[in-house]
Write a sequence for this structure.
C-alpha cells in the first residue's frame, strides 16, 4: 500500500502541496483529480524522489520509500520522455533491465507489451519515427514492463483518441486486477468515472474530497432534475421560480434545485407544458462534484 | 540490483548510442596522426637516412603534440557529455530514468562511458603512431615517444576526471540542447588558458618558466601543462606527486558540487540557474 502523509512543498511563494495525505491499496485504481496547479504532478514526482517535500512522508507497505523500493514502481511522467533514437523494443528492454529484470525476461516482457498495445510490427522502429499516439504507448510499456506493484501515471489519457483511451483503460484494469496499486491523474472525468471506483480530489495542495465516486456524488447537497418533453419544448421553465436552469440541450432541461423544492408543483408545471418523457432527480455527476469542491 | 549493475547498464546504453559518432571521431584522429607520420616518411623517402629529430627538438615536438592532444581530448569528450546530458534533460527522459535510479549512478555511468570512448581514441591513435612509425624505414620516431604516449594517457584520465562532471553539470542547465555550446563557454575558457600556457611554454626554455611551474600545480590548468613538463623531463618527482594529489582532491570536491547541480538541473525544466539547480537537487 502506498501512503502519503502530510506532504507539503513550496516553490518560492507558491504553495504546491499543503499537507496532502492519501493512500492507494494493492488492486485499487485511484483517480487523482484536481485543477491545474493543484499539486498532482508534484505529489507524483515526490513518490519517485524527483521532488523533495518540505514536510511529510511517503511510504510503501509501511516502510519509507528508497531506491530499492522504487525498482518495483512504474512511472509515466506528465511530460513524456523517451530516448528519441532508440528503437521501441530496445527502449522498453532497457528500462526493464534498469528495474532489475534479466535481459531475457525484459525482452519477453517488451514483446508481450508491444503486442498488447498493438505495436508488434513497430517494435524495431525508432521512437522519433513513431506517431505521437504510438510514442505514448511505448511510454506506457516502459512504465509497465517490470510488472510494477505500484503504477503512477500522470495524465495518461491526455491526447489519446477514444480507441487508444479504451486500450489504455483496459490495460490499467488488468494491472489492477493482477494486484497492482494504480494511481493516475486525469482531466477527463468521464473516463475516471467509468474506470475508477475511488477518487481523490486535490485543490491548492490539499485533499478536498475523497472516496468512491458513488459516495461523493451522493454526499453532495445538490440535486439536479432532468426533464424532457416529447415536444422538445424547453421554454416552460422560464415561468418557474426557485430553480436554476443549468442547461438546455436537445429538448432536455437540467435544473439545479436549491433549498426546499416542491417536486409535485414542478411536475405539474412540466405536465401542463406537454407530455413528459423524462423526469429524473439525479445527484451531480463527477465533473459537477469536481466543480463544486474545486471550482472556487 | 547493485549500484554497479545499474551503472553498467547506463555505460552499455551510452556506448551503443554513441558508437557511430565515436567511430567517426576515432577515424579522423587516426587518419590525421598516422597520416602525419606517413607523410613525413614519404617526403623523406628520397633521403639516404631516416628522418629523425635531435633530442631537444624531439622534446619540443612531443611536448607540443601532447599539449594539443590533451586540449582536444578534454574539449571533445566534454562536449559529447554536455550534449548528451542536455538531450536527456530536454527529451524529458531523465524524469523516467531518475524514477528508477539515483542521479549519481546516471552521471557516473555517462562519465565512464564517454571516458572509455576517449581513452580508446587516445590509446588507438598513440598506439598506431608507434606501430606505423616503427615499421617505416624512412622515419625514426624519437625514443621518448612511447613515454610521451603513456604520459598523455595518464593525464587524459586525470584531466577527464576533473572536467567531465563539470561539463555534465553545465549540460543539465540548458534549455535546448542546440544551445549547449554556450553553456560550455566558461569551462572551455579555463581549458584554453591551460592550453595557451602549455603551447607558449613548449617552444621556449621550460627550465625557469615560473608561469608553467605554477600552472602545472594548479588543478584546472595541470592537465595541459604538467604532461608538457613531464615529457620534457624538467620536473621533480614531488612536483608530479603534488600536482596529481591537488588535482584529485580538487576533482573530488568539484564532483560533489557538480553532482548536485546535475541532479537539480536535470529535474528542472528549461534554462536553469546554478542556484536553482542546487535547491532542486535530490538525494
Amino acid at each position: 500500500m502506498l501512503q502519503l502523509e502530510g506532504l507539503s512543498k513550496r516553490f518560492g511563494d507558491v504553495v504546491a502541496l499543503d499537507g496532502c495525505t492519501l493512500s492507494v491499496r494493492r488492486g485499487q485504481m485511484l483517480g487523482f483529480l484536481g485543477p491545474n496547479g493543484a499539486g498532482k504532478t508534484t505529489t507524483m514526482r515526490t513518490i519517485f524522489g524527483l521532488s523533495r517535500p518540505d514536510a511529510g512522508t511517503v511510504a510503501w507497505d509501511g516502510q519509507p520509500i528508497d531506491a530499492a523500493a522504487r525498482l518495483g514502481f512504474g512511472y509515466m511522467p506528465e511530460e513524456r520522455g523517451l530516448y528519441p533514437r532508440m528503437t521501441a523494443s530496445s527502449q522498453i528492454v532497457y528500462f526493464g533491465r534498469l528495474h532489475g529484470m534479466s535481459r531475457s525476461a525484459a525482452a519477453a516482457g517488451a514483446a508481450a507489451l508491444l503486442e498488447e498495445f498493438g505495436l508488434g510490427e513497430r517494435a524495431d522502429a525508432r521512437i522519433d519515427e513513431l506517431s505521437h499516439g504510438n510514442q505514448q504507448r511505448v511510454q506506457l510499456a516502459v512504465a509497465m514492463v517490470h510488472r510494477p506493484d505500484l503504477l503512477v501515471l500522470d495524465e495518461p489519457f491526455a491526447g489519446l483518441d477514444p480507441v487508444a483511451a479504451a486500450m489504455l483503460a483496459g490495460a490499467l484494469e488488468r494491472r489492477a486486477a493482477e494486484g497492482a496499486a494504480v494511481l493516475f491523474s486525469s482531466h477527463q472525468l468521464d473516463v475516471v468515472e467509468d474506470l475508477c471506483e475511488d477518487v481523490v480530489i486535490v485543490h491548492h495542495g490539499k485533499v478536498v474530497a475523497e472516496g468512491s465516486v458513488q459516495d461523493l456524488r451522493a454526499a453532495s447537497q445538490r440535486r439536479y432534475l432532468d426533464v424532457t418533453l416529447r415536444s422538445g419544448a424547453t421554454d416552460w421553465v422560464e415561468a418557474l421560480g426557485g430553480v436554476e436552469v443549468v442547461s438546455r440541450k436537445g429538448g432536455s432541461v437540467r435544473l439545479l434545485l436549491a433549498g426546499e423544492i416542491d417536486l409535485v408543483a414542478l411536475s405539474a408545471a412540466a405536465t401542463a407544458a406537454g407530455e413528459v418523457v423524462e423526469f429524473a432527480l439525479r445527484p451531480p455527476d463527477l465533473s459537477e462534484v469536481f466543480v463544486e469542491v474545486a471550482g472556487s | 540490483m547493485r549500484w554497479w549493475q545499474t551503472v553498467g547498464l547506463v555505460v552499455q546504453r551510452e556506448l551503443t548510442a554513441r558508437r557511430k559518432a565515436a567511430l567517426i571521431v576515432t577515424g579522423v584522429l587516426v587518419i590525421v596522426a598516422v597520416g602525419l607520420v606517413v607523410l613525413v616518411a614519404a617526403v623523406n623517402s628520397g633521403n639516404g637516412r631516416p628522418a629523425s629529430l635531435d633530442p631537444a627538438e624531439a622534446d619540443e615536438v612531443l611536448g607540443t603534440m601532447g599539449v594539443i592532444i590533451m586540449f582536444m581530448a578534454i574539449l571533445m569528450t566534454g562536449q559529447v557529455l554536455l550534449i548528451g546530458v542536455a538531450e536527456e534533460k530536454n527529451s524529458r527522459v531523465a524524469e523516467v530514468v531518475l524514477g528508477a535510479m539515483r542521479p549519481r549512478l546516471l552521471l557516473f555511468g555517462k562519465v565512464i562511458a564517454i571516458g572509455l570512448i576517449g581513452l580508446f581514441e587516445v590509446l588507438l591513435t598513440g598506439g598506431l603512431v608507434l606501430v606505423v612509425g616503427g615499421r617505416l624505414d624512412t622515419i625514426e620516431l624519437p625514443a621518448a615517444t612511447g613515454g610521451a604516449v603513456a604520459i598523455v594517457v595518464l593525464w587524459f584520465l586525470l584531466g577527464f576526471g576533473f572536467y567531465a562532471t563539470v561539463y555534465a553539470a553545465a549540460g543539465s542547465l540548458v534549455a535546448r540542447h542546440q544551445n549547449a555550446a554556450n553553456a560550455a563557454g566558461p569551462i572551455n575558457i579555463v581549458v584554453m588558458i591551460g592550453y595557451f600556457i602549455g603551447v607558449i611554454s613548449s617552444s621556449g626554455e621550460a627550465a625557469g618558466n615560473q608561469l608553467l611551474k605554477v600552472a602545472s600545480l594548479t588543478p584546472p590548468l595541470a592537465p595541459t601543462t604538467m604532461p608538457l613538463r613531464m615529457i620534457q623531463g624538467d620536473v621533480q618527482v614531488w612536483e608530479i606527486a603534488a600536482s596529481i594529489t591537488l588535482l584529485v582532491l580538487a576533482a573530488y570536491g568539484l564532483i560533489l558540487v557538480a553532482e548536485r547541480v546535475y541532479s537539480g538541473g536535470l529535474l528542472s525544466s528549461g534554462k536553469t540557474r546554478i542556484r536553482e539547480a542546487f535547491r532542486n537537487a535530490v538525494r
